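[User]
Protein folding is very new to me. Any chance you could explain this protein sequence and its structure tokens? I have pasted everything here:
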Amino acid sequence: MAISKLDYCLNNLQTCGTSHLYNTVEKEFPHIEQRRWGCLSNCSECMKKPFVLINDSEILAGEDPNDLLAQLRAKMTTPA
């Protein structure tokens, strides 16, 4: 899957450890645009586990930041 953009909820970055994903993507995949928003209107998931919005269309959530990063890497290597 071609991932060009990731959007993050600020609350999720602070409370669920998604900042680890943000920092890792920034270092390993600098071509991916990352944006932080006050709210992505995914509140039911936001307070429970780390998540990211991919290309304005798909929510990807993990049990923890490392799981989310592993899922994201798998998506990047899987053909569309």
The two ends are 5 Å apart (CA to CA). The longest strand covers residues 5-9. Helices lie at 10-15, 18-28, 43-46, 65-77. Residues 5-77 form one domain.
